[in-house]
Automatic annotation (TrEMBL), chains A, B:
GO molecular function: DNA-binding transcription factor activity; transcription cis-regulatory region binding
Top-level lineage group: Bacteria
DNA-binding region residue numbers: 44-63
Keyword check for Transcription: yes
Organism: Acetobacter indonesiensis
Xref: PROSITE patterns: HTH_TETR_1 (PS01081), HTH_TETR_2 (PS50977)
UniProt cross-references to SUPFAM superfamilies, sorted A to Z: Homeodomain-like (SSF46689)
Gene3D superfamilies: Tetracycline Repressor, domain 2
Protein's name according to its UniProt entry: TetR family transcriptional regulator
Boundaries of every HTH tetR-type domain copy: 21-81
Length: 215, 215
DNA sequence: GGAGTATATGAAGAAAAGCTCATATTTTGG
DNA sequence: CCAAAATATGAGCTTTTCTTCATATACTCC
């Protein structure tokens, strides 16, 4: 992974001592705080390092530029999210499709809700990036996990897994994100989640009916 | 200066002569082009005015700052989109809910697909804005139109209109956006649209069943 | 303890972007 | 045709931001 480093997106140095690991963590934390309090446009290297309690030079020792910092932060977050989704997928293997959908939405929703402000801040920070391999990679990685899960339902033909996977993931990720962008009250959010689950399940059932007919 | 407009988001001057209207249009067009060719981070007042073939000063005569320009551009786009959705809603009043959903998705989808690159560029440009009343206003406006439409279905109880409206709009807008963010091939896009319509309809049917039972 | 490596510092140069204003040109209306 | 209003200009001032580098401090391990 040291080779192609497309746009200087790689860390300059990798921390080896414990204090530097602390430093890098502090920088990430500071980035989040600045993102939340000042917004993406006012996020500068100086502000971040100030907040982190380190000098600008230190920051540049680990991140070759601002973009790399944002990318790294998002990569970190997306990685954690992917791990959780993967865990859910593994856990639900072999279950009925409706259970899978429900668990998937629950996982995704919870991960986003835990820190709603951060979720939104990160959404915006990635959008500010011109290049966007991150989301693409995330989609591929998580797509593989859900795909393998849907192939192992107890109540759906495996040959439909591709269509099911594409549709469900698109709808779920999209709806969740949109739900966050509107600023809704708690009751609406909760109702929305329930409806989303219902909707996905209703579609799956209609799917089963169709395949039964053709069978 | 006039009364301190909220965040300087208002146009400084409103064009009255025809040549100035041409100028403003050119600025909007240039903004789009720069957005597409250079991306949001490299979009600067200088670059935009250069592309528009006017001087920077001229730009600042109509837009007090860069943010105002982006806001105005998006407002313009969202207004056009809202009008189309409103037209569809008006046209579909009294029809079966499934027809409504289908028409709504079709309208939204077409509007986005017509200029997919622009759609994506605008998504990013708004996201880069720290403050975001635009989307909120759009959601409210379009929400009113769809709400009124769903209240007039031939096959659904009007008291469920609120839940139906919130759920469907969230799912549709979210899914459409997500579909654009992944870079999918034509066949996948088409399949996705069909599935989305199916899914919404399946949910509506399940909804009808439930309300029939309680009735 | 000391040589060598890792990490931290922050003043300062360079680049970029935002924005203004004094001046010039065009249009309008009487 | 002329004065007032509208519109256009763009050099250049200001502010912000990025980034580097020479130097200093801390750690590791023999």
């Amino acid at each position: 992974m040291t080779a192609h480093a497309s746009q200087g997106a790689k860390p300059r140095k990798t921390p080896v001592q414990s204090r530097s690991r602390v430093t890098v963590d502090a920088i990430f934390e500071a980035t989040i705080q600045v993102l939340l309090s000042e917004g993406m446009t006012r996020l500068t290297t100086t502000r971040v390092s100030e907040r982190a309690g380190v000098s600008v030079g230190t920051m540049y020792q680990y991140f070759p530029n601002k973009q790399a910092l944002i990318i790294a932060l998002n990569a970190r977050y997306l990685n954690a999210l992917a791990e959780r989704v993967e865990a859910t997928c593994a856990r639900m293997a072999g279950q009925p499709a409706a259970e899978m959908v429900s668990a998937l939405i629950e996982t995704y929703w919870t991960a986003k809700t835990e820190r709603a402000d951060l979720t939104q801040a990160l959404y915006r920070s990635v959008a500010a990036l011109d290049n966007n391999v991150l989301m693409q990679d995330f989609a591929t990685r998580v797509g593989a996990a859900t795909m393998s899960m849907f192939r192992q339902t107890s109540d759906l033909p495996p040959q439909d897994a591709t269509e099911i996977n594409l549709t469900l993931t698109t709808v779920i990720y999209g709806a969740v994100r949109n739900a966050f962008e509107r600023e809704l009250g708690m009751e609406q959010i909760t109702a929305l989640k329930a409806s989303l689950i219902d909707m996905c399940c209703a579609w799956l059932i209609s799917f089963q009916h169709r395949t039964q007919m053709t069978a």
